[in-house]
Prior knowledge:
elongated, mainly alpha, about 100 residues, 3 helices
Amino acid sequence: MAHHLEIKKYRDVTLPAWNPDRLLVDALAERDRFLERYPQYREYQQQIDDMLDRAGSSENRMAVLALLMEAKLIEMHDQLKDLNRLLLALPQETKLMSSAKIGK
């Protein structure tokens, strides 16, 4: 199950000066909207927040985020390998089923 966040691109628009506090407020609001739409992720978000709270410095927080993303990428890679294995096996099963029908 995949969920997508919208990333808005503005062309030929003059953006206001970079304001990290405003960006943080906007990002948290977007996260809250996401969790409203998909409440099943609230517990997972709470686990992430707890890990980040214990991380201490901003460098450690970034390291925690990097580790979480890496773990998820490894998990997705493993799932992709399983799917690939199943798809490669599919034609052989289809051939076996076809030949079994012909033999009957």
